Amino acid sequence: MLLVHAYLLSFTGLVADRLASSRQRAHTGQGLVEYALIVGFIAVGAIVVLGVMSGKIAQIFGSINAALPATPVTGP
Question: pTM score > 0.90 for this model?
Fold first, then answer.
């Protein structure tokens, strides 16, 4: 009887350990997916913002280019 009780305790501990490790792996994968979604949303947002503001950015760089003095290109 004592042997059966020890076996059941050992088996219960083994099952509990495996469940805990599988839960931990599931949460790790879930965190990775969440980070990937956040990075994806930030990338899409940056593309949209740059697309909307592209005209204004081109104007700013154009005015900077016009304000700089022209330097002649010389050979090597």
Answer: no
